[in-house]
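ugh ok fine here u go
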Amino acid sequence: MKSRAPENYICPICLGVSGIESSDTLLKKADLVYKDELISVFLNSFWIKTVEAHVIIVSNDHIENLYEMPSEIGNRIFEVSKMIAIALKKAYKCDGITLRQNNEPAGDQHAFHYYLHVFPRYDGDKFNQGMTSKSILSDPNDRVAYVQRIKDHLVKIN
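structure:
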């Protein structure tokens, strides 16, 4: 499948997974919630106005979208999304979880590297309204407590 990334694209997710912090990446080492040989989970630096502190699950290898996803990595992303969802429910006492994954510009994909959003949800949170307005860049210092809270509730799922 043809890449949709612009020519000379510097992948901000690959930089974050590699631990490289620069103006091209918003995934900081301090935002890392979980990492194994296939995937990484980061607290997202952009927050939806109606729902703070969601995470993104990314492949460690550069995979642009769902269409190119090897089954082994896709299966691991699914397993970890369940693990993260349970941790978010415990950590934030949320009423539900929403998963969202975008492919290609027409599908609202902004970074050309596979990523799966995992949002904590609350009754009456107006999430869909919040999704239509610009998300806000959170303060890195504010994110530290959220990262630790999720890590404290993370339990491996077998």
